[in-house]
Amino acid sequence: MIIGVLYPIDTLQPIHPALIITKQLTKTDLVDHVTLPKQEIESVLGVMDGVTIEGLKTGFEVNVYDASEEDDYPVTIKFFSERYVFGKGWSDMKHSMDLEEGQELKLFWHR
């Protein structure tokens, strides 16, 4: 199940597997910031325009689209302590989507 989409979206083209981020949510993800899988997020960040390591240290805002509810959630991707996390906006997103421990968060970047 795809829970979110990092914009832009072009649903006419197939999604390349290297542009998919999959994360099984843990209790820590739901209490604090969700930690994103490093190899998967770096694969996606490599094709995003305007993303730099310096920008990621302060935060790079993306929109996550919930296809099932047709809602948008602005969230910030940050890099600190050698990990990538959703920072600002994650709390609103997880509560609005009623995310729970053990659920799989699946995101993709698609041009």
Task: List its traits.
111 residues, alpha+beta, 23% helix, seven-stranded mixed β-sheet, At1g16640 B3 domain, single chain, 34% strand, globular
How would you describe this protein?
InterPro entries: B3_domain, DNA-bd_pseudobarrel_sf. This is TF-B3 domain-containing protein. GO terms for molecular function: DNA binding. This protein is an alpha+beta fold and 111 residues long. The protein has one domain: At1g16640 B3 domain (Beta Barrel). Helices cover 23% and strands 34% of the residues. Strands 2-7-1-4-5-6-3 form a seven-stranded mixed sheet. The longest helix has 8 residues, at 38-45. Residues 6-10 have low confidence and may be disordered.
Multimeric status of the protein: single chain
How many DSSP E strands? 7
Please state the structural category. alpha+beta
| N- and C-termini, Cα separation | 20 Å
Radius of gyration (Å): 13 Å
- Could you say what the CATH architecture is? Beta Barrel
Please report the number of helical segments: 4
Helix content: 10-25%
CATH topology: At1g16640 B3 domain
CATH class, please?
A: Mainly Beta
Beta-strand residue fraction: 25-35%
Q: Any idea what the CATH superfamily is called? A: DNA-binding pseudobarrel domain
- The domain count comes to 1
